[in-house]
Amino acid sequence: MRDVIVVGAGGGGAVVAKELAARGLDVMVLEAGARFAHARKEWSHLEDRANDLAFGYFRFGPADLKKPRWQRELAHAGLILQVAGVGGTTLHYWGNCPRAMPGVFRGYRGRDRAAYDRRHEFPFSYAELVPYYEWTEATLPVQTAAMGTKEQAFLEAAARAGLHYQTSKDITRDAFRPQENAILQPGGTAGRTADPHRLRYPQARGCTFCGFCQQGCFEPLGAPRNLVAKRSVDNSYVPMALTADQWHRGGRKATLITNAFVTRIDADTAGNRTTARGVTWRDVSSSAERSERAKVVVLAGGCIENPRLWLNSGLPNPNGWVGRGITNHSPDVVLAVLRGPIGASQGPASASRADFPGHGSVQPFISTPSFTAGAAALSQAGFAPGSPSARLGADTVGRLIGPALVDALRDVDRVLTLVVITDDDVQTNNIVNIGTSSDPCGPVARVDLDGHKRSARTQRNRAFLIRHAVRIARAAGAKSVHRVDAIPVLLHIHSSMRMGIRAHDSVLQPTGEARFVHRLFIADNSALPNSLGGPNPTLTTQALATRTAEHIFQRYFGGDPWVRHESPTPSTDAHVSRALPAHGL
Amino acid sequence: MGHDRGLTRRLLLSRSAAAVVVALLSPVDWPEVLLRDASAAGDDLVRDTVNGLVAFIVPGDDVYSRAQGVVVAGPGGVGAGATPAVIEVLDFFASDAQGRPVPLSGMVATLLNSAAQRVNPKASRGALLSAFARLSFAEKLEAYHDIDVDPALAAAQGQLALLPTVVGLITYSEAPVLDRATGRLRRAPVGWRMSGYGGPADGRAELRGYYRGRKQANGR
Which residues of chain B have pLDDT under 70? Predict the structure, then answer.
């Protein structure tokens, strides 16, 4: 019997594994996707090779790329951008690590209090999470991002548009700033040359400004895995979990098993009490079924697979909130063609942003040609030029295709691409359930999130942010501005197994333990009570997962909390680097 | 478009569309009739239809762009070689209950050609094989709009809405010239040239320093 089994080696699960392995617990991590132990050989900077919707190595699918991806059902137009494999969706994230808006927490007393989704606030205060933020920020580590040309253009345009400059990690007013990113910033020759011979570690350190965060980070060449620039958990928390005996006194290295698709949470029921006892998984390669028992099970399979696994396991769902209330930041995209080049296809993937408390955020990202062309057509509003009322200050709206697309992309380095991420409401009609079809791991998940049926507040927030994005684009000297009005893209996904104050509309207690199943915790984005007010979710999920790990250790293993009493070891620690070769990394 | 004509069009479209809906959403039991439909579409017709779609999303100076009456100087999606790669993706996008890939390109072609015939019945004859490829650009917009709003297709909109995106992603990427077995490019991607993209590198000389010289945010 294990002490703890963690289901999923993504952004949240890897954090619990690392923290509890450091406490000396016997931790086993099961990951359905690939190991990606040899990133330099397995990955590429090529856009399609990495992110092709069918063939890309970053997909929700098996490690064997000759097999199709795993299926989900979508009730409405939408696109799910999740990644299976060690690192999960952090493999293709941009490392953006803003803290959540303070307004989404219990006890918030700001003047804009009514602007947030008050019915679904965090069950504790912002101040309570701050020490966990600080611990996580030091572990990854999170650093203030340096600028490329396009970031300079955005930040200067935001200033010209009348926004304030924010210098704090805490978000307090409408303001712009460089990103706080989980990316080691450029050192040595990094960011100063394109010559591959001068970009080897240690001559180059940190981010080389290649711009390919989405294809997986293996820069600078020759760096130990834990000194690769982007701090996706395959480069940070997973190496720490696997080497916990080397960098923490009393630590015990975690066990990682890949190609292991968990198909059932095994549980006992006595009277009204259901208790998790372990899990059963299917070896994706051999189809063999295996089981293991544990004192505690931690679910971190993501916002779509967690509800599927819960429901396929026949676990209780008395209030109907398993899978209910999923949020996705209702993202939208604004494409601005500028009068001159800003190096839009080069430099950091995403290194600047503007935040609007009570509404959400706007951030530019790298305009590589394939991704930009794909995003331009990803609309729920028909074909451009679209309805004037839907333009919200842009010149056109809808799918940008035909001569207009060719013309817009004629010089991709002039295309400023802005993504709008909305503070969207938890809505009872947005739900992950079980579909009508099955795959070898059981009935598949069905996602019901209708982009046309978002709450009035969500729609207002989205429109507010689009107007600001257009304003910033105009201030940057845009020749033309296009709004996509994107279909629901499930990239930032949260709150499908939400933690809450009240038992009648939440799945988790404020400790992260399930209300209806003892010894079962959830520690990924699905545990978030709401959409955080708009900021990118990974840092908050990781801070919350750290807090959940403390609760597990205290409640079931008689341990003491550590975050307020110890200093964190950064994931870049030399002890980790030295121990990695023994793990094939 | 009159109300009656629109209603009839939707009903007729629904008949052929139903197969696509079921196909896209039912990885459990693939009815044999649907698999027959998929193969009956025929490689040439599928290729011709997808060429018509690719020229619609990213026109160039090719024969399919000329057929739709909207031409852009340069290669466009067809000239970039996007069509075979789009078909490959469509045929590997879905899987059945046993995890086997299910070819969708034939059904997508059937759907587009069916919509084309409703928009312009005269499109059933012409030099190109595909009725969709024979439509004008404006008629293609109308045909695609019909697909967007057809209630019989509501359950498949999730996937159908992605088609223009798939074409855009592929045309402007290395996919048309990528050897998937080796991961190497057979030649420089046309989409990169169309967008002035210099291709990937291990790093860029793009560092412009820190905004206002500040390298660290305040803790609070």
Answer: 1-42, 155, 220
State how far the alpha carbon of A283 is from the alpha carbons of A19, A264, A278, A291, B109, in Å.
Answer: 26, 13, 16, 11, 37
For all residues of chain A together, what is the average pLDDT? 97
DSSP string computed for A367-415: --HHHHHHHHT-BSS-BTT--HHHHTTSSEESB--HHHHHHHTTTGGGE
Q: Is A388 exposed, middle or buried (0-12, 13-18, 19+ CB in 10 A)?
A: exposed
Contacts of B34 (CB under 8 A, 6+ apart): B19, B22, B23, B107
For position A41, what pLDDT does the model report? 93
User: Cβ A372–B172 below 8 Å, yes or no?
Assistant: yes
Cβ within 8 Å, pair B173-A439: no
Residue B106 half-sphere exposure toward CB, CA atoms < 13 A = 15
Residues in chain A closer than 8 A to B200 (CB atoms): 44-46, 210, 212
In the prediction, which pLDDT does B148 show?
87
Residue A370: predicted pLDDT: 97
* pTM, two decimal places: 0.95
- The two beta strands, A79-80 and A489-490, are parallel
Higher-confidence residue of A112 and B99: namely A112
pLDDT digits (tens, 9 = 90+) for A377-401: 999 999 989 899 999 999 999 999 9
Q: How confident is the model at residue A456 (pLDDT cuts 50, 70, 90)?
A: very high
Q: What CA–CA distance (Å, rounded) separates A149 from A347?
A: 8
Q: Are strands A520-522 and A143-144 parallel, antiparallel or unpaired?
A: unpaired
Distance from C-alpha of B62 to C-alpha of B64, rounded to nearest angstrom: 6
What span, in angstroms and rounded, lies between the C-alpha atoms of A18 and A249? 13
The C-alpha atoms of residue A329 and residue A362 are separated, in whole angstroms, by 11
Residue the block writes with tokens 């969708």: B104
pLDDT at B38: 53
DSSP letter string, B99-150: S-EE--HHHHHHHHHHHHHHH-GGGGSSSSS-TTTTS-HHHHHHHHHHHHH-
How many Cβ atoms sit within 10 Å of the Cβ of residue A213? 25
Q: What is the pLDDT of residue B101?
A: 83
- Do residues B65 and B72 make contact, with C-beta atoms less than 8 angstroms apart? yes
The answer to whether the CB atoms of B204 and A170 lie below 8 A apart is no
> Using CA atoms, how far apart are residues A449 and A490, in angstroms rounded to an integer?
9
- Provide mean pLDDT across the span A550-575: 98
Asked if A214 and A92 touch (Cβ cutoff 8 Å), the reply is yes
Q: Which of A40, A47, A69, A350 to mutate to test the interface with B (most CBs of B within 10 A)?
A: A47
pLDDT of B181 reads 86
Mean pLDDT of A172-195: 97
Probe site for chain B from A71, A96, A179, A198 (most B CB atoms < 10 A): A71
> Per the structure block, which two tokens stand in for A207?
């981010």
Closest CA to A387 of A489, A467, A485: A485
| A420 pLDDT higher than 80 | yes
Residue B31: predicted pLDDT: 41
Q: What is the 3-state secondary structure (H, E, C) of A481-541?
A: EEECCECCEECCCECCCCECCCHHHCCECCCCEECCCECEEECCHHHCCCCCCCCCCHHHH
Which residue of A52, A185, A221 is in closest CB contact with B202?
A221
Q: Which helix H or strand E contains A549, and what residues bound it?
A: helix A538-557
Question: Using a CB-CB distance cutoff of 8 angstroms, which residues of chain A are in contact with residue B157?
Answer: 76-77
Cross-chain residue pair A74–B159, CB shorter than 8 Å: yes
- What residues in A contact B172, CB-CB < 8 Å? 369-370, 372-374, 409
Q: Give the residue among A399, A412, A338, A320 at the shortest CA–CA distance from A371.
A: A412
B78 CA: distance to closest CA in chain A (Å): 12
Please work out, in degrees rounded to the nearest 5, the angle formed at the alpha carbon of residue A200 by the alpha carbons of A194 and A204.
75
Alpha-helical runs (H) found in A38-148: 39-42, 47-51, 126-139
